[in-house]
Amino acid sequence: MKRVIFVKPQIENPKLIFDIFKKHNPDSSFVNPHICLVFPFESNLETRIIESIINDVLSKYISFTIQLSGLSVSYEKRNNFLFLNVIDELNILKQMSSDLYNCLGNNAKLKGQYTPHITIAKSKSVEEIDQVNKDTQTLLQPIYNATISTIYCKKLIKDSNGNIKLEDEIEFELPHNH
User: Fold this and answer.
1) Where are the alpha helices (DSSP H) in the chain?
2) Terminus-to-terminus CA distance in the chain, angstroms?
């Protein structure tokens, strides 16, 4: 079974980011802007075991703020991506991701370096991703503040037409700092 662990940041003034995401990211049919902590992974672990890992790993964290600022392009073989950069000065997202990967062990492997980001556009065409990047640069505010307070583990399910949908599995609420 394929799963993914991610956060949906509560973004101040999110309308433009959501509009760009819906227009240029085909994944918008089944998910909103998000930051993956553990990228899609294949695992037959029982839900209660994954829930226990998430609870153990994340119980030491409280909700926190990040900033979203600037864009990066990633050119890859199958797709090209436009990322909204995440500024997490305390590296909390990196630490969470690292802790989750460590506790999941062989059930999830990180390929490459973990850099938190929001994929706001995706295209097979280099020209298209470059144009979206150019157009988007002038539209976005210099900085967006966002709060991280909920972590989700969802199952990726393919329907009879081969379309992916996310099925809720675990929702973990970080305590708020009072």
Assistant:
1) 15-24, 47-58, 92-104, 126-137
2) 38
Task: Dump the DSSP string for 124-164.
Answer: S-HHHHHHHHHHHHTTS-S-EEEEE-EEEEEEEEE-TTS-E
Confidence class for position 178, pLDDT limits 50, 70, 90: low
pLDDT in tens, 77-125: 999 999 999 999 999 999 999 999 999 998 899 888 899 999 999 999 9
Go through the chain and tell me how many residues it has. 178
**Which is nearest to 166 in space by CA: 156, 178, 158?**
156
Q: Measured between alpha carbons, how far is 129 from 14 in angstroms, rounded to an integer?
A: 21
Give the 3-state secondary structure of residue 21: helix
What pLDDT, in 10s, does the model give residues 22-62? 999 999 989 999 999 999 999 999 999 999 999 999 999 99
Q: With beta carbons less than 8 A apart as the criterion, state whether 68 and 84 touch.
A: yes
Tokens for 89? 């000065």
